[in-house]
Amino acid sequence: MLLGVFGTGAILTACGAQSTASSELVHPHHLTIGMEAMLPPYSYRSTGGHVKGFDVDLSHAISKQLKLKTNVKTTKWSGLIAGLGSHKFDGVIDNITYTPERAKSFNFSKPYAYSPYMLMVNKKYPINNVHQLKGKTFMEGVGTDNQFVARKWGAHTKPATSFAEIMLAVKEGRVQGTIDSVQAWKAYAKSNNTSKIKAYPIPESTQAPAKISVLFNKHDPALQKKVNKVLAKLRKNGTLRRLSEKYFHTNITVKKQQM
User: Fold this and answer.
1) pTM listed for this prediction
2) SUPFAM superfamilies from the entry (predicted)?
3) How many whole angstroms separate alpha carbon 183 and alpha carbon 149?
């Protein structure tokens, strides 16, 4: 579960039909987006140190529609939440999942993507579905939806700070497994040896796919509404689908997906 809001952010108000009031943004004429850049292909650092990925391109597309420049700032997960509350970011785009509990402290955009879950386990453990997780030891990011889902099905969880750390622990058998998105597994499997890991898609009938949204300060409803309108436009004109196919080679912006 995400931490609560730290402090308050300035309230954004409309300034004309097509523009955003720059004076009330973190930086005038810029949309400042926080992200961790630790989960390819959503967001990651290239070998040259540049931040790239689906969420980065989406940030640029949203900014363009709002007639703003994009200012992407990277920080650790805990810093994203604190930074949003203290108005260091206008929003956070970082593969963040909507839950009713989180919505008590934050505003969310309409979903821009949907993320089915994948169960990943070390091959030496006889686990192939979530009904077998009771009492098992899994590794998950602290405060993530993956941690919530693993615990929901009875697993004990060890904390981790990155997906790479988690997958190494699973591969070495230091934990029995982990739960993450189908997309995260596919990206990992492309560039890593997975001979010691088995992956099992979690059926939608068992665990509904996560709704991925932009996160806003609870006190900034005007920006939330503007971004919702932009996302609707990007969905209608095919931009969301094109960005998804560029990075995932499938359309993750719809609920029903090919596994």
Assistant:
1) 0.79
2) Periplasmic binding protein-like II (SSF53850)
3) 17
Domains and CATH numbers, the chain: 22-113+212-248 (3.40.190.10), 117-201 (3.40.190.10)
**244, 113 in Cβ contact below 8 A?**
yes
Q: Are 23 and 14 in contact (CB under 8 A)?
A: no
Q: Write the pLDDT tens digit of every residue in 225-237.
A: 999 999 999 999 9
Q: What is the dihedral of CA 73, 115, 3, 147, to 10 degrees?
A: -120
Q: Is 234 helix (H, G, I), strand (E, B) or coil?
A: helix
Q: Which of 94, 121, 123, 92 is nearest to 105 (CA)?
A: 92
Q: What is the amino acid identity at position 32?
A: T
What's the maximum distance between 2 C-alpha atoms anywhere in the chain? 61
Q: Which of 94, 199, 109, 96 is nearest to 148 (CA)?
A: 96
CA distance 173 to 188: 17
CA 243 to chain CA mean position, Å: 15
Tokens of residue 161, six digits: 């700070």
| Strand runs labelled E in the chain | 30-35, 44-45, 51-52, 69-74, 91-97, 106-108, 113-115, 117-122, 137-141, 156-160, 177-181, 197-201, 210-217
- pLDDT, tens digit, 9 for 90 and up, residues 49-78: 899 999 999 999 999 999 999 999 999 877
Nearest Cα to Cα of residue 179 among 208, 206, 145, 212? 145
pLDDT in tens, 199-213: 999 999 999 999 999
